[in-house]
Amino acid sequence: MASDSTRKGSSLRRLAITPVRVAGAGLLAVAFAMIVSAAVAVIDGGGAAAGLTAAALITASVGCALFFGSQVSSSTDSALAFASVAWSWLAVSLAGALPFLLTGVVSWAHFDDAIFESVSGFTCTGSTILSDFDSVPQGLLFYRSMTQWLGGMGLVVLAVAVLPALGIGGLDLIASEAPGPTADRLSLRVRDTARRLWLLYGAVTCIVAMLLFLVGMSVFDAVTHAFTTIATGGYSPRAESIAHFDSVAIELVIIAGMLYAGANFSVHWHALSQGIGAYRRVSEIRWYLTLIAGAFGLLLWVNNGELELFRNLRESLFYAVSLGSNTGFGSSNYVLWMPAAHLTLLVLMLVGGMSGSTAGGMKVLRLQVIFRYSFRELMRARHPNAVIPIRLGRTTIEEQIASKVVGFVLLYLGLIVAGGVVLSGLGVDPVTAFSGSVSALGNVGPALGEAGPTSNFLVFPRAGRLVLMAMMALGRLELFPAMLMLVASLRGLDRMHRQREGTKSP
Amino acid sequence: MTPKPPKRATLPGYAQRLTGWILSRSALLLRQLSKGRLESAIGVTVGAVWVLIAPLFFVCGVIDWLDGGPDAVALLISGLVIQLVGFFILRVSKFPSTLPVARLFTAFVGGALAALIAATIAHFATGVAPTIDVALVEASATVTGTNATTIEPETVSLGMMLFRSLGQWLAAAAVIVVLVRILPHLGVGGLDADGGVATRSARRLAPRSSSTMVRLLTLYMGLTILLAIAYFSAGMPFVDSVIHSLTTISSGGFSSHSGSIGAFDSPAIEWVAIVGMITAGTSLPLMFRALRRGDLHRFVRSIEFRTYIGLIITAVVAVLAWSDKWPTADNLRETFFWVTSAISTTGYVAGNLSLASYGSEALLLVLMVIGGMSASVAGGFKVMRFMVLGRYIGRELRRSIHPSAVEKIHLGKSSIGEVALARIIGELFLATMVILAMVLLFTADGLNFEAAFSFAISALSNVGFAFGLGGPNEHLQALGAVGHLSGALLMLIGRVSVTPILVSLGGIGEPLQREVRRWRLTRHEKAVR
Q: I need a surface site. Which of A148, A177, A481, A502 has the fewest CB within 10 A?
């Protein structure tokens, strides 16, 4: 590795900035997605092939330049890891907008809409600005779903599988994708962990695709829906989403897929290798399932007067799982439901899925910590000198980590309120504004009010969509990396400048 | 000697322990009664509250009689009954020699409930409220200083009108007493309970508790009188001036007119109300120290005060900007009015917010949640606590880069202990859970989502007005019995704060927890065998 850099370094001086390298890797992955979609477009004959290929070429060239023109910094610390994640997501989102523009589906005058769709894809949110699905070429719809699939496991994880060979501290990057108590390591080497997660992810996607095909979807539909189910994204090439198919079997398969994808993937791996008892050992799974089951029950009860029993069961279960995993597939218009149901849906959107899954939201793990933290304070009020640890199941959480989680939740709630206020100020009615805020930060997709599952996000004014975009990115990056992005980058630049100064003087 | 085997969770075991408990408690009670008094903190509190509240009944009853109103007899009789019962309870109770923290919490909550019950009796006995649940929610609004009501103020007699206004005023005075005397022991958030925070002036006042209490109450009374004079000079009739002064300084919000302050249609009166509301949300110790030394610079030095005023000004600017209207004097006054009414949690209403935009609605709700300054009589979560939380978030952000840094949180010149931080955070999360539960109840009882949510926030912060329905004050009327009871509970929780109530409930929960643990242990044993 050292010889590599000296060989190349003699003629081209490479920028020793990790974020650039990671960004480059991400762009290369996106270019790959574009090429595949172009191939699909050619097979399907929809006319998007040219645009997709052009976008692929542009992205690939920029990606190569960034990737091969840089190397990892000599020092890696958390700040740099955070910055890498944030900047690569930014680069990927911008590049990802190109297909929409180059195929003509989104006009250049509305380039921010293309970026919105791209961000909504890579962050696995699923909110859309597209209105006329019939005029969108199949290749582009395929690309859209694939962006979610890639975003699901984090382009960074892909980069981690490749970059460790080049000597980067991979675990920092995975950890930076999710601060706080998170997915365990599956093996001692981060690279192997990343590869195993991707293997599981890919395998489950294939299984879901096959099942969907078996219950009646076309190949195209099966693959695209499998992509966005396992990524808990929620994009569908159909305007009415899952409601288009009106099939209980399809809904059940998707429910199973969403439920699986909303759970911790490393626990899934443990269950596959060590037996199903692995699920019982994790307390978060119990909370996750209880939350969804409870929401299901509550929805059933609230909708009892409105819908007839079978329909009620079907729709309540679908939405309990769809919003409980923050996927965002739509089966019926829940905006017509009672307000009490809306509250349940909102809480589901807020909490999200399990940590270490592709789901968004605050994560069930943090909810657990919050509950235990709050009730510990109640206990302490009665017994001021008691020493009460915060325990999840059988593992104890150390105070530092608990503080971090609490800080995260406070920031999360604060951002939702701030986002809601800003959106209201831009003219959106408060219910739509605040639910849109929750939906964006939690990467759900649909919201309440005017932005329900049957509408698109053009309901929000242009500036509002910008705010929502930012929130989607913040939510996906789990807040801290994005917020520290600028700080770390500034510090990195400063350090690099000082290094150069240092090497200049004798 | 062999250790005793653990107690098993069997049915005879349960029955035995329950009976044993009943017998031992009864024996204790009887023994104490025979000696003359029961040791009961809650008894002392309840009795004291009732004895002290009865004069309010008498005063209002006499005034109503002089005014020729219909409620005189009802007030006097119920007042007498409460006085006698309170006296009796007080006579047979005495303050226990040892007082664990949990008992203090229960006594505190008991006192609040006692006041609530007394007010409920007043409302029900005089017929102002037709049913018990309405009486309860009206009483709750009186005791917690919330301007949420189903009653048309013009239909109420002078006696009851005075009862409600004086009730809000006295309730706020009680808050001052509690702040100084009781909360420091509970560690929920008193003058200097937060591990040495609040302002330096407050800490300086705290050691000599009784004189602190007297001083603050005197200030409180003085401000009320001043405001009454101000209202009168601005053109309000005498009785109205008194009533509004009582409900402004206490940040309660009741009015003698159904249009609230707006009914007077007078800019001067509205400005007086604005100043009064700002004062209600200001920290009393701060005001005391500033006025005593004539040192107005103290206000500027207080970081919390600067934030409080800053919030008001920012909100006014934002609301005006969002309303797409030019800032005329009228618009400015109207905006100031609504903003201060929300942040001081008073709840006065001035017409239908003509500058209403979605943004202003959201912003007003946020202001309601923030509330007034700590150590003021206003409700809400308090400005200082949000400032602390903001710094906490900043610290955690910084810690994610420097994990081993040990950083204390500073507010102005004082630092905040970890224990106090944990309490504030716990309180916030618990309040959020309570709000979500209540919104569920409100929506189940018929309110739409916006109305339910805004009313829940308004009730918890003890403001009163909300959104989502035709007018700002129609929510209680739109709710049924379940909604009324939930609303009453929510207002109480907002005033008394979540922790004491849940801790008192925990007093019931703890024996239950022990039984559950015992059952689990037994089951484990059976499995092992």
A: A502
**Nearest residue on chain A to B392, judged by CA atoms?**
A407
The span from the CA of B145 to the CA of B498, in Å, is 17
Compute how many other C-beta atoms are within 10 angstroms of the C-beta atom of residue B19.
10
DSSP letters spanning A386-412: ----EEETTEEEPHHHHHHHHHHHHHH
- CA-nearest of A261, A263, A248 to A313 is A248
Residue B94 per-residue DSSP state: E
Phi-psi region of A163 (alpha: psi -120 to 50; beta: other; left: phi over 0): alpha
CA distance A270 to A322: 25
Whether the predicted pLDDT of B184 surpasses 70: no
- Put simply, the answer to whether B389 touches A410 (Cβ < 8 Å) is yes
Which tokens in the block code for residue A204? Answer: 């489950």
Q: Which residues pair with B409 in a beta bridge?
A: B416
The pTM (predicted TM-score) of the whole model is 0.87
Give chain B's length.
Answer: 529
Pairing of strands B414-416, B409-411: antiparallel
Q: What is the pLDDT of residues A314-328, one digit of tens each?
A: 999 999 999 999 999
Question: Which amino acid is located at A83 in the chain?
Answer: A
What is the Cα–Cα distance from A502 to A487, expressed in whole angstroms? Answer: 22
ipTM of this model? 0.86
Question: A66: how many CB neighbours lie within 10 A of its CB?
Answer: 23
Q: What is the DSSP letter of A184?
A: P
Residue B221 has pLDDT above 70, yes or no: yes
Q: Is A336 near chain B, with CB under 8 Å?
A: no
User: Whose CA is closest to B426, among B416, B434, B437?
Assistant: B434
Q: Is residue A113 within 8 Å of residue A105, measured between CB atoms? A: no
Structure tokens of B238? 């005498």
C-alpha span between A178 and B93 (Å, rounded): 57
Measured between CB atoms, does B299 come within 8 Å of chain A? no
Q: What is the per-residue pLDDT for B323?
A: 81
Kindly report, residue by residue over B293-329, the tens digit of the pLDDT: 787 888 888 889 999 999 999 999 998 888 877 788 8
Between positions 16 and 75 of A, the ones with CB within 8 A of B are: none
| Residue numbers in B near A426 (CB within 8 A) | 359
CB A163 within 8 A of CB A147: no
CA atoms within 13 A on the CB side of B464: 29
> Are the C-beta atoms of B281 and B344 separated by less than 8 Å?
yes
**Which are the contacts of A205, defined by CB distance < 8 A and separation ≥ 6?**
A149, A226, A227, A230
**Is residue A41 within 8 Å of A47, Cβ to Cβ?**
yes
> Which residues, in sequence order, are CB contacts of A501 under 8 Å at separation 6+?
none
- A428: three-class secondary structure by DSSP: coil
The three-state secondary structure class of A433 is: helix
CB neighbours (10 Å) of residue B447?
25
Percentage of chain B lying above the pLDDT 70 cut: 87
Minimum-distance CB partner of B393 among A377, A407, A426: A407
DSSP class per residue in B33-90:
HHHT-EE-HHHHHHHHHHHHHHHHHHHHHHHHHHHT-TTHHHHHHHHHHHHHHHHHHH
φ, ψ (nearest 5 deg) of residue B200: -65, -30
Q: How many separate helices (H) and strands (E) can be counted in chain A? A: 22, 2
Two tokens at B167? 């009730």
DSSP B446: T
Distance, CA of B163 to CA of B123 (rounded, Å):
10
Six-digit token string for A454: 């049957």
Range scoring the smallest mean pLDDT among A277-281, A499-503, B28-32, B344-348: A499-503
